[in-house]
Specification:
Layout (H helix, E strand, L loop, with lengths): L5 H18 L2 E8 L2 E7 L6 H17 L4 E7 H7 L11 E7 L4 E3 L13 E11 L2 E9 L1
Helix pairs in contact: 1-2
């Protein structure tokens, strides 16, 4: 298995946080393949799909453009539960490594990331549709 591009990985974390903040959403699956990333998001909104995508892409790129530092912190499971969704963590975890991209993008992660969002470039959502009712499937790339 090849290493995940830190630019894509950091962009996926930001996009996931945006879906959470704007649409009470959460990621249910992500796949990294070559220069594109596929993500499935469960959302709770009545907005039209094109509007959801437009708002998510715009807010994600706004955060990227803020040149935020990416930092990491190990916290207890109880502390992590107060800060972010842990629905994708395996059972038995007692300590969580949090990736923090500013005060509002906090997600559990053990992978590699950029040091600053200025390294990411621009996120472009290329395809999107309803995978099932309430689940958006999209693909994105990051461009310089």
């Amino acid at each position: 298995m090849s290493e995940i591009d830190p630019r894509q990985h950091s962009a996926e974390h930001i996009l996931t946080a945006v879906f959470g903040h704007l649409f009470d959403g959460r990621i249910v699956d992500s796949r990294f393949k070559g220069n594109k990333v596929r993500c499935d998001y469960e959302v709770k909104t009545e907005l039209p799909l094109a509007e959801i995508i437009s708002k998510a892409e715009a807010r994600t790129n706004e955060i990227i453009s803020e040149n935020r530092e990416v930092t990491f912190e190990f916290v207890s499971l109880a502390e992590a539960k107060k800060l972010c969704s842990l629905h994708r963590l395996p059972d038995g975890i007692t300590e969580v490594r949090l990736a923090k991209i500013g005060p509002d993008v906090i997600t559990p992660c053990r992978g590699n990331h950029v040091h600053n969002t200025s390294e990411i470039g621009t996120l472009k959502i290329r395809t999107f549709d309803w995978a099932t009712p309430g689940i958006i499937r999209l693909t994105f790339v990051v461009e310089n």
